[in-house]
Amino acid sequence: MYTAPHPYSFHIGVSFAPKPPVRFHGEKPKVPFPSDGIIGSWRNKMLARSKQVPTKECGEDFFFYNEMRNKSGVCFGVADGITAWLESGVDPSLFSQALMYHAHRYSRSAWAGEPEVDPTLDYEEREQVEGWELSPYECMDLAYGGVLREKFVEAGSSTACIISLNSANGLLRSANLGDSGFSIIRSSSILYSQPVQTHFFNCPKQLTKLPPPSGKRFRGACVDSPREAQTYRTQLCDGDVIVAYTDGLSDNVFLHELVEICSAEPVAGESDDEQAQAMADRLVMYARECMATKTRVSPFERLAVREGMFFPGGKPDDVTAVVALVRETQTQV
């Protein structure tokens, strides 16, 4: 197969931690995807990756990352299951895990951009190149359809943020629904930060699967469509850092703190992969520290005050961070 030049490489770090256990009225014992099933075995593989945060649980959050077809780029994302479903006896983690699994399933066999073909081939030969280009919006839409067909997921809902990075041209594309999101750091400052989408305070837009008509309904269900996702694209540069996160991070860590943590000098001898992992670990550990204090003003506290509510200090929550460090490996012609 013809291999086009790939001047950009992306180094991924992932870290995560669950919130303290919370009991809800009507909550059923959680029944996870079976470990010997397709989603369960994939989930276990993702959770087994090495990190400094001492936990192998992700709570109601989940994530994915993978190379795309022919190393044309990488795709990754985060999802945050809506905790309130526990009150109706529904495990929110099943929805977020299934959503991220299906996003992984579709993106790993697709191209980050137009399929790469040998320019010396005839038109008919070019047409034989397999695969298709997949945008983050299309990935979200297909993954949501996969969850709706997933029999093990009775009901639930989740936010979603999906990002693709093109190794041929350095293009970032994203689709985001809800209050998960991402930020791009360039030269120790914020280049872009994804605005949140909410129905009202602390109620994000969300992809939803309602229970069958005979089942118990979730009274507060918000049913949003991938069509409502915000999309974004930009050109990346060598040294850029992209951080995708659930609101467990953004509700506890200010953007200037995010920049400081990701801009710290790397340890001597650290590889780019190790740098990305260290950033992700530091972000999650700092977010957990912020959750545990009531004497520090948090981003969530400031938002609550604007709504006339009193919520001092940090907000305990699941927290997930996926960090991508961009390297331009050769000069583009």
From TrEMBL:
Primary enzyme class: hydrolase
UniProt keyword annotation of Metal-binding present: yes
Molecular function via GO: metal ion binding; protein serine/threonine phosphatase activity
EC number: 3.1.3.16
Coiled-coil region(s): none
Residue span, PPM-type phosphatase domain: 45-326
Catalysis: reaction(s): O-phospho-L-seryl-[protein] + H2O = L-seryl-[protein] + phosphate; O-phospho-L-threonyl-[protein] + H2O = L-threonyl-[protein] + phosphate
Protein name: Protein phosphatase
Organism of derivation: Mycena pura
